[in-house]
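note to self — DONT lose this again. spent like an hour looking for the file last time. sequence + predicted structure for the chain T wanted, 420 res
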Amino acid sequence: MPRLKKVVEEVIITLSDDVNPSICASFKDLPQIFEEKDCKTRDKLLFDFLEKINSIEYRPLESLFEYIHRRTKDYFEEPFNPIKLIYENWKLKIIFDDPEKVKGKLTIKAGSRTLFNKFLTFEERENNILEIDYLEKKYFPEGKDEITFSVRGQKKPVIRSIDYFENIPGNKKIRILQHDCCNNSFEGSNLRIAAVQLKYHAYGEDSIVKLTADETYYRKVMAILEAVKEKADIVVFPEFSIPFEYLEEIQQYTDENGIIVVAGSYYVQEKNLMKYGKLFTREFGDEDLRKNISPIVIPDSKIVHNEKALAARDERGCGFEEGMEAGEVNHILKLREDLRIGIMICYEYVNDELRKRLIRACDVILVPQTNPSPKIFYRKANSELNIQLCAGNRAHIMVNGIYTWGNDKKQYMEGLQELL
């Protein structure tokens, strides 16, 4: 109600001085309609509101009032009101204005998928909150949903929209999606992962991290892929170690050998923007520039990708440097019904909130990184594995490089490579 009153005040301020005073009064009456408890009095207020609409001669304003009247009327005709939907850590929380209005068994669906189909418990009615664990339902949302609420005998369902962003510290939002690889990848009983550690030179230029990649380096990358093609189901390269220009040939390699390649990561640059549609599952635009993305190359499929949400110290803006653009997409790979792979790009793994969200859903976490001091990663991995959130075998694989940085091309920094 305070929010509605604030909106009404803002609308009145925008009206011109020559607007009929009765129009302003109509806006001011809106909160009173919602606050009125007596149904007959409320119906009269709605009727009066409609009468004022009919007297308006300015058509655009009349249409606006008609829309407000229709939505207000629909609101009161709904059999019950889920006033707020909150999505966090794979759980949907539904807050009702009055659960006692839910008469009988409640059915809740996301699209055609049934999430809930039973009576509300005493605790749920008492607390005005219903919580649905999506992982328990084996439901992985795909961006946005229309959530429908219905009970037997109800003329039409109550519908609410939701956008499935996870909120993580630092005012960051990330969308965690599942990509189904069941038809085009791993079929064995033992998952074989090749964690590649190779030498490369990375440097900062034009607010992004770049890689020195000549013909010799290209041959080295392709030789590594050739060497593991009958020994691995997934190949993972370190962060910053694979440039965009290698992806087309890596795609051909995965198609021929049935191997998934996590192609390190690189920064999105303007020179390649128009080429993404050919290789990736979606087009890229100006809003994607300076994102640090990890291409996930899958057999017989276009490339999906993860976007690094949290920048490491050397990637953050400083002075005139803009720094890394925070990403907001993370894909989980479903290899089998009981086997899912999560991918976190370097510094993301240190974030407890994001890490725990992926651990709840995944059996294996892959962490491509370019990191001279990975000890904190291993401490956190050991802590997570010692206090597992889920049953079954779990593994966290740190994939680091041996690299030089910036102007110093002689001093190699070697990050430990480890399976935990």
